[in-house]
Amino acid sequence: MSILRTVLARLRALRRSARADRDLDDELRAYVDARAAAYERRGLAPAEAKRAALIEIEGVEQV
Q: Per-residue DSSP letters for 1-43?
């Protein structure tokens, strides 16, 4: 494989990886928002509800 093809293949892989990371971030945010909404329906304040949802999944950064 030529150097140019190798470089292009690696660039495509990086782009796919970045897209997958964004998709996962979006999915995690949606989950946290849904869980926070559930906690709010139980009577928690919005900030407390979000904190509880993040604790439930042990924080977004760990995932």
A: --HHHHHHHHHHHHHHHHHHHHHHHHHHHHHHHHHHHHHHHTT
Q: How far is CA 53 from CA 21, 24, 39, in A?
A: 20, 17, 8
Tokens of 59: 């924080």
Q: Return the ∠ at Cα 25 (arms to 28 and 45), rounded to 5°.
A: 45
What distance in Å separates the CA atoms of residue 45 and residue 36, rounded to the nearest whole number? 9
Torsion angle (degrees, nearest 10) of CA 47, 21, 63, 45:
10
> How does pLDDT run across 8-53, given as a tens digit for each residue?
788 787 777 878 888 888 998 999 999 999 999 999 999 999 999 9
Quote the pTM value: 0.69
